[in-house]
Amino acid sequence: MSEFRVKTKARAEFVDITAKVNHAVAAEGVAAGLCTLFVPHTTCAVIVSENWDPDVTTDTLTHLERVVPRDGGYRHGEGNSQAHILSVMLGTSINIPVESAKLKLGKWQGVMLAEFDGPRERTVSVSVVAAGRTGGR
Ligand code: ZN
Description:
- The protein is of the alpha+beta class.
- It has one domain: YjbQ-like (Jelly Rolls, Sandwich).
- It is 26% helix and 36% strand.
- The chain has helices at residues 18-28, 54-67, 81-90; strands at 2-7, 13-16, 33-38, 44-50, 93-99, 102-103, 109-115, 121-130.
- The strands form 2 sheets. A 5-stranded antiparallel β-sheet has the order 1-8-3-5-6, covered by helices on one side.
- Strand 5 (93-99) and strand 6 form a beta hairpin.
- The longest helix has 14 residues, at 54-67.
- The radius of gyration is 16 Å and the shape is elongated.
- The two termini are 29 Å apart.
- Bound molecules: zinc ion.
- The site of zinc ion has 4 residues, from loops.
């Protein structure tokens, strides 16, 4: 298991962390298995999304803000309930297959940290479990 830090620059943004995750996966020394990513936070998430056309990120963020408005008449006094709700909806953990010691992502997929209460410094935890065989198929 290892961790790396990500500095976010805006209140809400997706930060592409694919290269950092692949670097961490390579350091684990596991050729094939499953990578679990986890963010120990309550106002961000970790997701897989398209990382080629930036309009996809803009559309996704815009629509998420419509689904969960910033001013929704929430009770939480800290004023960041929208970020807490979006973190729960998108999730703080994902699993991605590992092949040849790197993430086996689709051609258009990237791993992103979804920030909803930035700017902040976030921690991403990376664990890789090796695929094992007992002998027979
Ligand atoms: Zn809060």
